Amino acid sequence: MERLVQGVRALPEGRPAWCAGAVVLAGRGPYVAAEDAAGWAVRYRAYDPERDRGLELPRDLWEPMRVGTVFDLASLSKLFTAIVTLQQVECGRLGLDDEVHAHLPAFAPGATVRRLLTHTSGLRPELPFHERTGRAAQLALLWAESAAPAGPPGGAYRYSDLNMIALQLIVESLTGRRLDALVREGICRPLGLASTSYGPLAAPGVAATEDQRRPWAKADRGLLRGVVHDENAWALGGVAGHAGLFSTAQDLAVLCRALLDAGAYGGARILGPESVAALLDPPGLGFGVDQPYFMGELAGQGAAGHTGFTGTSLVLDRATDTFLVLLANTVHPRRANGGSAPRAAAATCLARAVVR
Length: 356
Hints:
Blueprint: H1 2-10, E1 21-28, E2 31-42, E3 44-48, E4 53-56, E5 63-64, E6 71-72, H2 77-90, H3 100-103, H4 113-117, H5 135-147, H6 161-175, H7 179-191, E7 197-198, E8 211-212, E9 222-223, H8 231-235, E10 245-247, H9 249-260, E11 264-265, E12 268-269, H10 273-280, E13 288-289, H11 292-295, E14 304-308, E15 312-317, E16 322-328, H12 341-353
Antiparallel strand pairs: 1-2, 1-16, 2-5, 3-4, 6-10, 7-10, 8-9, 11-12, 13-14, 14-15, 15-16
Helix pairs in contact: 1-12, 2-6, 2-7
């Protein structure tokens, strides 16, 4: 585990650095094997595009990363949407092979709930909701896309934020509750995830993300901290099926343990074993399965997990009863694609440390 921790500690020190700061938490069974923080939750006040570097805050205003720092989860939010969807399936309100059109009449026929969860609906990756004002105008983009998707429903895998936005609309229409309430009552409250919620959040204790300005971003919002980074989630009110949640490594570790223990944790149950298997078995409902690009050597025996654009990721491996949470603010102060090599390296360190 020392190699894993040392590798994460080096991430903010590289030239160029992969992130301003990071938190790692790994475990097996009921035991925490590694937990550490490195770098800075807040270091920059802005990004200078002319010199292509961050403009640092005065040194006494830098805030160190801590193991309890709250992160913008970005696409890890999709995992919570998938769990809420399976909870509705367990309640009998929804079927995996239901047509989306049956629950959202404005959505064109062809896609099913299962196809949304497996990213085989044919929908393109995203739409410019941030360019539209008002919910009706924003959703009109989704309805039009459903009628003329980028690919045929049931065809090839095509990762799409739109799938999770559609699932959000379905579960909200079924329950009469907003997604944030469903996540809070169906996942966070029973598992005791006290630091997991949608924003906006008060800035202290939250990792900063981007100095969001055009042309590198899709909106001019300045330095973001405690408000969702994703422009479409922001335009949709901060609560969206594909992004918007904030959380800590400790809370995500509890979620991993619940899923590794077939849906139960500490006397609470969020899903039945069959639903957990549906989430994690190939091809995965909302979860990616055996993805070496970020799972490293944990991939290959059914490991499941996800990444988030802001620098977040988690992997859980039922074969060895292990999990890895790696959270980083790779987009502070500007979004950049540093790749997933550090994620894969961390996962490989964990895989090699486990006696099978």
